[in-house]
């Protein structure tokens, strides 16, 4: 969740180009707020040159953001989150284990009954052909 300097919330889906136009905003990463002040990227004269250089400048900004992303140790956050999810998955599997045993028992009984029905029909067909 980001907020502009005026305290207006900015959607998470806002593109980097729009954030650069806002100039000053705060961003929350791992429940920590960081204030971002975007320096002027292009002067008035450079803005007239063309969009090719703007794209190069935006690529530089994207590289800086990628470096910031890795510097903030996002990977460690992902690993801790993954560990939490694995723990919850193990808890759910423990809760489902009795139901899985019941399911296996029901499947076994169904196979036995299906076998009885198959043999019964086979015998009935044999008796019918003897007459």
TrEMBL record:
Residues 5-129 form the Calcium uniporter protein C-terminal domain. InterPro entries: MCU_C. Pfam families: MCU (PF04678). This is Calcium uniporter protein C-terminal domain-containing protein. It comes from Panagrolaimus davidi.
């Amino acid at each position: 969740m980001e907020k502009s300097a005026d305290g207006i919330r900015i959607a998470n889906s806002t593109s980097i180009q729009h954030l650069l136009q806002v100039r000053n905003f705060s961003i929350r990463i791992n429940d920590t707020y960081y204030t971002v002040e975007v320096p002027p990227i292009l002067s008035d004269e450079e803005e007239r040159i063309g969009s090719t250089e703007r794209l190069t400048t935006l690529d530089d900004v994207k590289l800086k953001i990628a470096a910031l992303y890795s510097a903030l140790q996002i990977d460690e956050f992902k690993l801790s989150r993954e560990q939490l999810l694995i723990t919850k998955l193990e808890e759910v599997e423990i809760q489902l284990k009795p139901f899985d045993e019941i399911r296996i028992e029901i499947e076994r009984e169904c196979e036995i009954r299906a076998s009885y029905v198959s043999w019964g029909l086979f015998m009935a067909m044999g008796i019918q052909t003897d007459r």
